[in-house]
Amino acid sequence: MAKRIDVADLNIYYGETLAVQDVSMSIEPRSVTALIGPSGCGKSTFLRSLNRMHELIPKARVAGKVMVDGQDLYAPDVDPVAVRSQIGMVFQRPNPFPTMSIYDNVAAGIKLNAKRMRTSELDEIVERSLRQANLWDEVKDRLDKPGTGLSGGQQQRLCIARAIAVRPDVLLMDEPCSALDPISTQKIEDLITELKADYTIVIVTHNMQQAARVSDTTAFFNLRGIGQPGQLVEIGDTATIFSAPANKATEDYISGRFG
Amino acid sequence: MNSPRTSVQPSDLSAVLSERLFTQGSLPRYAPGVTLAAAIVVGGVLHLSGVASGLAAVAVVVLYAVAIYGWSLAVEGARKAKNRVVTTVVTAAFLLALLPLISVVITVVGNGVGRLDVEFFTYSMHGVVGEGGGVYHAIMGTLLITALATVISVPVGMLCAIYLVEYAKGKLGRAITFFVDVMTGIPSIVAGLFAYALFALIFGPGVRMGVMGAVALSVLMIPIVVRSTEEMLRLVPAELREAAYALAVPKWRTIVKVVLPTAGAGIATGVTLAIARVVGETAPLLVTVGITTGVNMNPFDDRMATLPVFAYRQFMSPGLPPEPAIDRAWTAALLLVAVVMLLNLVARLISRLFAPKARA
Amino acid sequence: MRTGDQIFAGLSTGSGVLILAILAGVAAFLVVEAWPAVVAPADEVPGGAGVTVYIWPLLFGTLLSAALALLIAAPLAVAIALFITHYAPRRLAHGLGYVVDLLAAVPSIVYGLWGIAVLAPATVDAGAWLYENLGWIPLFAGPPSSTGRTMLVAALVLAVMVLPIITAVVREAFLQTPRLYEEAALALGATHWEMIKMTVLPFGRSAIIGASMLGLGRALGETMAVAMVLSVSGGVSINLISRSNPSTIAATIALDFPESTGIAVNTLIAAGLVLFAVTFVVNMLARVVINRRRDFSGADR
């Protein structure tokens, strides 16, 4: 399932404005890659270009290559809808569909692709996804209740269950814990560590301890200057980045001197 | 179920999941254009061979929808095909809604422009039989009655909005808000009957007066003024009020000197739209003001002419020969449409030019 | 200074209460003026069979035309609102909304003229076709009208008139669909339409219901367009394409009131009272539905 991502010379635009410049990096399968950097450095924009969510903003576009196991995401005949069904995403704020039950939230993605599926089969997938998201025991008695009735942390795990129910190759997470309390955050972090056995995970985080705790590889993004596009400063083994970064800016950011 | 993280893959699941490729068949970029062009050609041929234009247009839309569905279904699959059909339907619905608007404008301008002459604006219908005559009396009547309705509605509506925003607490406020909304739905003919019933009780049955029309229009206008003013007042930042209170300015002076001027442009926009809404009302004036042929400038005495009622009467009981009266009706309608559109435009301009945060 | 405050507070509170008084006044004065018709001997009421027999066919015509108009307008309005909010380019959305709003600005008398002059003649062929091919359905029992001034055309004109009202409310609700949920759907690999089905439509559902009822209320009370377009013969009939149709309450008042005297006026006011009651209830329900949605989305944020 897990796939490898190779990004080459990626430039991301909003209209005429270049937001992220010349990013090249490789993301290993079955690993967690953390994207860190100060606000506005383009790490979320970069993340959203990995499942073609970026182009939903009017006039937004991307130039360069994103290869997922050898397939170019931005090749002309690629269908963005197919891309998004294979590269899952978890958002900053938990966003279970408010009009759907917990069960229907998890089943939502599957129902899109398979209209006529046996109930028993669907039940099985929902249960497995909820178990994988470490949520099953908390919700198994109220699957028919709305997902919005859960706590923030539970909602976010529901969203993770929803994302992995369709068995994506890659899981993108855009600051998944920034709206959560410390206990919920820890549960999600544990979950990330478990999920990496099956998925390629890319996570944007503002929290450097979190990056250090959960990730294998860390990529540091920074603005070249005020009004300049963001760029990838360095990427490397998380332990190395946090102990002996090659770049001065990385060191300053990690030691809390800015950002 | 096994342990949480086992990734068992039931054999039938793989059938459920699409094959792991990003390139699922997709129609070329030019597909909608080509299909539409083909559908239009077929529609054109149909039209040339005697099919009515409306039917041919429907045929174009249906042909396009069916063709793009079939093509997409074959290449892209059912989900994409459905997506394309919905796009077609939604777009067609919008274009369909434009049709009556365009048709109304063309019809009214086409039929009404003939009598758009000086006589039309300067003469009344006093002693006119057949050709000639004008709407001077009706213009005056509409102006007077609308002005009177505005004079009644604006203070009441604004004060009510001020109450709702600045004073209201609890049940009374909520009740008023709710019933103002309900009041916007009162049929205009009922407002007319109300004014008639009110004045008939005082002056006896059969009474007709300009002011009755103004009262009827006020019933329709007040809720609109309240809603738009209320909306604008709520946009005034609380800091402005607090700044004034901190200077020991009494509440009422704060409202009059600070809050209202800040919301002024928005309120003016709302009032203009409210006027536009009632200036074309026919039914309530028909039962309260009636119609007359001469100029009557006294809204407290007897019947008056108004543009909408004039248009209605000229069209429905044209007399002999009917053509001149029907022409006058169309021109009066054209005048009404022009006035209403102009008022809408003015409202837009006010809100754009004078709005505090004037960013288009 | 204190007195200034008191006077101002009193004035604004008074105005607020005045609104409630006006609404109560509308009901009260209509009841007072309708009463003589209710207690009058049946044979003095127009039609000679009492108020109820007089009003019932009118009420039927009112409900039929309004329901039909809603049936046509509501789906269209939802589609148009979708087009404006989720299909048209962002920059155009505002202007397109304004164009649809203009439909609401056209005075009803103008729609009446347009209905007679353009729409009615344009439907004559369609009416004949319906009669020949679908005549076995009671709705198209015919004989088809040769002028096109049928119940179907009246309903079409009404539909055009209520379309912008429904569209405006639904559009507002669709615009408020949180981007958060739309993105969630898209990120799962939903197509544009599937995203709308999963998020926008459920989110706007009560607004659609409330707006439709607002439109229904407007269609029930619409006067001039129906008075001018519909060719009436009294009685109760669901035949949509013939020249003999039941009239509506509002249209009858507009047509008969100017020439009526005595008990006939009271009878018409009684009909108006019925119309007021019906639209009042419909509007109240509409507002309750719309407000409930507002509370729901407010708590959700």
From TrEMBL, chain C:
PROSITE patterns tied to this protein: ABC_TM1
Cross-referenced SUPFAM superfamilies: MetI-like
Span of domain ABC transmembrane type-1: 59-286
InterPro entries hit by this protein: MetI-like (IPR000515), MetI-like_sf (IPR035906), Phosphate_PstC (IPR011864), Phosphate_Transport_Permease (IPR051124)
Topology class, membrane: Multi-pass membrane protein
TM segment ranges: 7-35, 55-84, 96-120, 151-170, 223-242, 262-286
One BP term from GO: phosphate ion transport
Gene3D superfamilies recorded: MetI-like
Protein keywords: Cell membrane, Membrane, Phosphate transport, Transmembrane, Transmembrane helix, Transport
CC per GO annotation: plasma membrane
Subcellular location: Cell membrane
Role this protein plays: Part of the binding-protein-dependent transport system for phosphate; probably responsible for the translocation of the substrate across the membrane.
Family membership noted in the UniProt record: Belongs to the binding-protein-dependent transport system permease family. CysTW subfamily.
Name of the protein in question: Phosphate transport system permease protein
Organism: Thermocrispum agreste
